[in-house]
Design goal:
heterodimer, A: alpha/beta, 28% strand, B: 381 residues, alpha/beta, eleven-stranded mixed sheet, 7 helices
């Protein structure tokens, strides 16, 4: 049985339908890349999987580890092992990174029936993972994402993923706004997390990230549907030919 | 209400003048612009019995407690009772006055703690009114920290007036923790007269009370630095009104104001921040901020800046916000496994954090953090 099974998923925001029948099956151990032009619904899919209430699922089903994912609140999804690395990580002034992450980790541990960590044990857990992400430890004492540079925010997302150890990680445009060095650090952090038990969905606009995080499958999303699927070579093709052919009608001038 | 027992002649004369003035003014109504959003009719129509609050003073020996003789030259010279009826009423009931002096150049490390508690006196009746009065004279170049706490049980009325005279180049850090019972009425006036190149900061934490009005007023001299911060947290049908007045009378003064409020239930909060920059007060630098976090649909905030600027070379900024918990932040926390209720509690706490962080007295900050933690647990329910 697949870890994640998406069937004919439709979702709207306001009265606009964004996802128009997504079918996708992801097994543990696999990395799936989802590519596509802006506005194709990539980020919506990522947010729907994480449980963002802004989007309303109007049809279809999502089964995660044999359970109905759409019935779960966002926090229960996270505790069950789903992690969304945000395209735009949220700044939360007044809550320290350390307090936030410790609260998150302990809630998840409690849910899994593992002892909660005290401050010292927590520090031991995070220290190595910060090093992998080349993050300064002082970031722990700063408010969540507040005053972080774009690169620091993205690294912080992957660092959180490393600490929370999800079973299904959804990375939403983790490469956006990163220079090549920062991209390599982030990709190394992600690659270190690849394992036979863990699945990943990597949402990206560009093939560049997929040179670093090599996917097992590539899917092309256009206008709310997966229009093409293939192996990693599909990403290279897209980079060369662009997304233009995927539309029946020619794109409007100025559209990316 | 009756007058308090006779005292020294000068004090009796002061009381009589104040009582006469109060009789002329009467209780304010909402037709009075200063009281537009705060209806004190529940106080006006209650026959309160005057009583002395239990006042507990804890301070270092270097702080001098003065008798009424020394107080005469200063008492009621700063908190004027010609306009404010509650100051007049307090002055009419002058009795147990706390008068402290920090001598010139003396640095007091330990906070001066003044706690006023309205006692339960079933023998006197159930509706008591206390009029605590405090006068603190801080000498030139002296330094001290003052923590005033107000509390009690049941239905009563606290009508407090505190006058603080900050000598030239002195540094004073003042805190007022209002923890009255949830059925109490609390009216207070703080009047600070700040000397040349002196620094004065007051932090008003307002948690209790059914009907609360705080006036925090500061008059600056040349080169004075004034800070008025506040945090109010109200729920149910609580009403809290914070009026501040910063009077830049002389040049080169700076003032900073940050008032933050958290409202739930059908609570009502009022903020009115008046800043006067007089003709001579060139090079004034003044900043005022009022931020409100509204957790329910029924809570109401009325916020108003009131700038009166008569000098031309000054910088004055002000801003006010009324908002709810940020949906993006809530989702971000939930997506990391933190429950919605806990996420709301954390974000509410985070909102108050920058006012709490400005509290320099560690013990007060610790106890406030505990109080807020418990309070936000209730709010998040």
């Amino acid at each position: 049985m697949a870890l994640l099974e998406i069937k004919d998923l439709h979702a709207t925001v306001g009265d606009r339908e964004i996802l128009k029948g997504i079918n996708l099956s992801v097994n543990a151990g696999e990395v799936h890349a989802i590519m596509g032009p802006n506005g194709s619904g990539k980020s919506t899919l990522a947010q729907v999987l994480a449980g963002r209430e802004l989007y309303v699922v109007t049809a279809g089903s999502v089964t995660y580890d044999g359970q109905d994912l759409l019935e779960m609140s966002p926090e229960v999804r996270a505790r069950e092992g789903i992690f969304l690395a945000f395209q735009y990580p949220v700044e939360i002034p007044g809550v320290s990174n350390m307090y936030f992450l410790k609260a998150a980790l302990n809630t998840i541990r409690k849910h899994r029936g593992i002892d909660e960590l005290d401050a010292m044990d927590f520090l031991n857990v995070v220290r190595d993972k910060m090093q992998i992400m080349k993050m300064d430890q002082t970031l722990l004492n700063r408010p969540v994402n507040t005053g972080f540079s774009g690169g620091e925010k993205k690294r912080n997302e992957i660092f959180q993923m490393a600490v929370l150890e999800p079973r299904l990680a959804v990375l939403d445009e983790t490469d956006s706004g990163l220079d090549i060095d920062a991209l390599r650090v982030v990709a190394a952090g992600v690659n270190a997390m690849r394992s036979a038990e863990r699945a990943m969905i990597v949402v990206t606009h560009y093939q560049r990230l997929l040179n670093e995080i090599v996917p097992d499958f590539v899917h092309v999303l256009a206008d709310g549907r997966i229009v093409k699927s293939g192996g990693k070579e599909l990403a290279v093709e897209l980079e060369a030919e662009g997304y233009a052919d995927l539309y029946e009608e020619p794109e409007a001038v100025g559209r990316v | 209400m009756t007058q308090a027992p006779a005292a020294e002649p000068w004090m009796q004369a002061l009381r009589d003048r104040a009582f006469a003035r109060f009789s002329e003014l009467g209780f304010p109504t909402t037709h009075n612009e200063e009281w537009r959003f705060t209806n004190v009719a529940p106080i006006a129509r209650t026959a309160f019995i005057p009583v002395a609050a239990d006042t507990l003073l804890a301070c270092s020996e270097a702080v001098k407690e003065l008798g009424p003789g020394r107080a005469e030259a200063h008492l009621a010279r700063y908190a004027a009772f010609d306009e404010n009826p509650f100051v007049a009423l307090n002055t009419a009931f002058l009795g147990n006055v706390t008068v402290l002096e920090i001598p010139r150049g003396v640095v007091i490390e330990q906070p001066i703690q003044i706690t006023h508690e309205v006692p339960e006196r079933p023998d006197l009746g159930t509706k008591l009114a206390a009029h605590p009065r405090t006068l603190i004279l801080v000498g030139e170049g002296a330094q001290c920290t003052i923590v005033e706490t107000y509390k009690g049980a049941g239905t009563y009325f606290t009508n407090a007036v505190t006058e603080i005279v900050v000598g030239d180049r002195a540094v004073v850090d003042h805190y007022k923790l209002q923890q009255e019972s949830l059925s109490a009425f609390h009216i207070s006036t703080l009047q600070a007269a700040i000397g040349r190149s002196a620094t004065f900061a007051s932090h008003s934490i307002s948690l209790g009370g059914a009907l609360v009005r705080n006036d925090a007023n500061a008059t600056l001299s040349e080169g004075s630095d004034a800070t008025l911060n506040g945090l109010y947290i109200v729920n149910g049908t609580q009403h809290v009104d914070n009026h501040t007045l910063i009077d830049h009378a002389m040049p080169h003064g700076t003032s900073h104001e940050l008032y933050k409020g958290i409202l739930d239930g059908q609570a009502h909060a009022v903020f009115n921040g008046k800043i006067i920059v007089r003709k001579d007060a060139q090079k004034t630098d003044s900043k005022q901020t009022n931020k409100n976090l509204v957790l329910s649909d029924d809570a109401v905030v009325d916020t108003k800046p009131e700038l009166q600027i008569f000098a031309d070379d000054v910088r004055c900024t002000h801003g006010a916000t009324i908002g709810q918990l940020d949906a993006e932040s809530l989702f971000y926390m939930q997506s990391r496994g933190i429950g919605k209720r806990e996420a709301r509690r954390l974000l509410t706490y985070a909102f108050a954090q920058d006012v709490v962080d400005r509290i320099k007295v560690q013990s007060l900050r610790d106890s406030l953090e505990r109080i807020l933690f418990e309070k936000f647990h209730e709010l998040a329910e």
